[in-house]
Design brief:
Blueprint: H1 5-10, H2 20-40, H3 44-48
């Protein structure tokens, strides 16, 4: 059964906003991971595993 706009509105979840301090920590983690990926390349996981 194809979903229409009305059906999807009923199933949306309510999320509690993330506190600013946790948001900042998460951004720093993602930024660090991106920096490692950018500098070492995507093939690094082959050497680690």
């Amino acid at each position: 059964m194809p979903q229409n706009h009305e059906n999807t509105k009923l199933h949306q979840k309510k999320y509690i906003p993330i506190p600013g301090e946790l948001d900042l920590i998460g951004k720093k983690i993602v930024d660090a991971a991106y920096t490692v990926h950018k500098n070492l390349g995507q093939g690094i996981k082959r050497f680690v595993l």
